[in-house]
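anyone seen this seq b4? input:
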Amino acid sequence: SYGKKTYGSRTRSNRPLKQLSVAVIILIIVSLCTIYGFCIGLNRTHNNDYVIKQSSSAATGDYNAVKDSANSNGPTIRSLDDLSPEELHPKASSHRYIVSPPPDDKPISLVTCETTVGLLHIVVHPSWAPLGAERFLQMVETKYFSSKVALMRCVKGFLCQFGIAGIPEYNKLYNGRKHSLQDDKNWLPEGPTHRTNELGVKRFSKGYLAYAGGGKNSRSNQFIVALKDNERLGGGSPWEVPWGEVVGKESFTTLDKIYTGYGEKGPPQGRLSREGSSDSIQMEFPRLDYILGCTLVDSR
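predicted toks r here
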């Protein structure tokens, strides 16, 4: 009976304490779950914020923030020292350059542009077209191409035109005749009789860069790059004098990846000038490629 009384007396006297203990334990468990859930949520929020910021960087063309998965090991060309003598100072040959370009009596520059399909390494030759080269380098130095510049008119086997800024305000620096460049002297042989030479080399080599234009002294902020060797470009239109070219296997691979499906029916120039690389343009032309940024890498 002692045992029963003792046991019974303990049960009666400690029941509120046990109930309190259970309640405390439940409260602790609920609190821990709440804290854990909050931490998970906070972590997810942080991760989402990172993704948003990363996507924002890509949209605005932050060259240092955007990494192309195809180039995860970094660029294959990091300085002018990585180029061959032929890439540095090209001359006419049996497979490229219908004539030897002007000799480099001024410092040349290496510019690397990141696009949505890979890297473009560009050697700028001021001796080829002094005014044209100077403007391009100026645009690189002012981060113009970080505005996300659309590769807006890319025709398969022909050329790709680009240059209208992704931020409309940037275009104002180049709008109007007063901002147009005087023509540089064309060093390519002109006229229909010089479309190819006796070796079959075409006049305007794949990877040549020049301006798009529409008359004398009309060069502004739009460019062309040849996607294939071309016999007609550079044959008399004064704005088509090359001021540089892409170099390296990596660059030519990138040229071949640029989407050309829209051809002449890409976003209209007037609309791009007004809207820039807007969400509506990206929705309407989802496969359009862009230049995300260009950086001056080396010069000498």
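The CA atoms of residues 76 and 285 lie 30 Å apart. The first strand starts at residue 109 and ends at 115. kinda curious what u guys think
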